[in-house]
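Re: the request from the purification team.
They wanted to know what the chain is likely to look like in 3D before they choose a buffer screen. I agreed to run a prediction and write the result into the notebook, where they can find it.
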Amino acid sequence: EDSATFQLPHGIDENTLVRVNASDYGARCRINRTPTEVLDKGEQVGSVSNGKSVPDDWESYLCKVNDELASVFVNLALATVGPVPSAPTLAWLWIRMNNPREDGLSSDAEFDVLCGIEDELESAIAEHQTGIYAGRITTKGRREFYFYLNQGANLETAIDPVLARHPDYASQRGEKADPLWGQYFSLLYPSAQGLEQIARRKA
């Protein structure tokens, strides 16, 4: 099963929105950052090592993935710079949650651990200059992380030490060529309805 081929039909009602808790909807632990200049449209990811960073604007919304409830958390600001020519490869890491809710989303009981894993992954990707963390999907009892890899980058070098620190979590990974960032623009990035969800929550 290749999540890069997922369809994201929308149609979440208000009752569903109310039932989703902070561990999936609009909440994420963030590593500390020093603000810097951001990457320009079409600029190489290697510029990050010269004092620039990818733009940062994380938001979440709900949808259906293969007819299952899903929470998508995505860096909206990547739409202003992508696709980045030096990061043409989509990579994904799926982690099976140990205590998901009945609807397949994450539970409060697992919130801190999942936040810790996510921040460790993002820190490792940045430290090894592996690529760009684009977003994640939580659905069907798993958390799916998506990255765009720099040319020649090795995902395992960055993430294997993180996974080794969490042996209780089963994982699955893969990668494929995606130079036009189809996974980001067609699947992770919200539709008009998803953008409306985000705007309504901010109001």
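For the purification team: The two ends are 38 Å apart (CA to CA).
Please add any questions underneath this entry.
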